[in-house]
Amino acid sequence: MAYLAIYRKYRPTTFDKVIGQEHVVKTLINQIETGRIGHAYLFTGTRGTGKTSIAKIFSKAINCLNPVNGSPCGKCLACQSLSDPSNIDVLEIDAASNNGVNEIRDLREKVQYPPTSCKYKVYIIDEVHMLSPSAFNALLKTLEEPPKHAVFILATTEVHKMPATILSRCMRFDFKLVDIDTIANLICSIYDELGKKYDKDAVYMIAKSGEGSVRDALSVADTCLSFAEGKLTYQDVLTAIGSSDREKLSALLQGVLSDNSEKALTVTDSLLKLGKSVGLLLKDVAGYLRELLIVKTCQNAKELLKLPKEMIDELEQIASTVTKEKILRALEIFTLTESDLKYSSHPRILFETAVVKATKPDEDNDISALLTRIAELEKTVKDLKNGAISLPTKKKEVNLEEPKCEVKEDVRAVEEIKEVKPVTLTPVSKTGLTAGQIFGKIVTSLRHNNEVMLWSVMQGASAKLDGDTLTVIASGEGDEEVIGTEENIKLIKNQLPEYSFSVVVKRSPEVENKNKIDEEIENYKKIFGSDIVIIK
User: Closest Cα partner for 237 from 223, 252, 248, 251?
Assistant: First the structure.
């Protein structure tokens, strides 16, 4: 007999062997036990999550004479009859190759005939979204009011392509992605049964490669079973699935995150020379950056990643040298490059461009690059403060030789020395702060304390200091009346309780002069009349 693939050999035949879809299984079992069997079901979800397997189990279970916990017994006449490939009571139709209106018309005619040896006649239509619009229209009426003996099970991976008229006539079940632990436990049980020795890390890598699809993970497990003659190791799995060399991948990311374009491009060249696909390399880089981000942000990174200890140590060492913002920026760049790859005829150039861009945050005006640079500056300041790093000191070279001067004949001696004006220093209070510093602290504190009205008026004001008296000079019309209230004077002092100073509010000279001019104009208008006074 020909070799049977693992995913076919270990396809579940009863509901208790289905993994990861408990919400679907429980509902279907309750329907079987209570006899509330629907006429149309829609199974939707990503590939390899058990849609067709559950459809086959359900089609047998509703015809089984003695179901066991909702699952087919496999021993009664109905189960044995349905196990025969020639049985026509359960029909599996591939809509991708039978998507025309003629095939659906043929189905409509045959569905009227009762089953030969079972209670129900079941039609499993796989990839039903591939049907043409006319085929959907032909199926519509039959799907709404089928014969009592007919049950339709529609399976699709792209439910958004289904007409709303079909969706409204079906009982819908959404299949979810299966978690890594569940898939890993399944692979372990299969390897144990087959007598294959393995490392736990290797099995988790296989489970992760499936990305939630049980069938994909079992296909990789089948490949690894033939690849490794002895014990299956983590490195064996990486080699079997064609993943990038972990050591070179680490060197590439270290070059990227340390802004070393030359190193990153050199490692990129060596990886591509090995025949690595750019698409696979982008996927590996994004996966490595994800692991770095988890190590950087999560305390339980070991439990989340399930990687060997030496790899966790390596990730922790790299993550300690970079900021979270830098990892996020690099991850965003390579993820966008992966989506752009399908439209590019030069994938290598696209990848190398992404590598250089990731190493040049200083030359990028994107907001993520600016945030990265800010985070780097904050980290440097923090390290300086903690003494982790120190500023380099450069010794200034001193020329001990006597300077040579050339005296020209037209240079005359200075006959008189100009008087040097004294420098006026900014007054400093007993607190050691200038008027500007005190005023700035007050305005900032008002903003933080949500004193919005007083803060907005103080924005246009200025201040001067005379001893410990702070004079606030209001620049707007009527601002001195607002600032100078007893309540606001007290509020201003309360912003800096650690300092002792008095506050005086005055009107700015510009406003004072303007008011005087306005008063004079009004006087002229009273004397000569407002209609003949012209102001220029």
Answer: 223
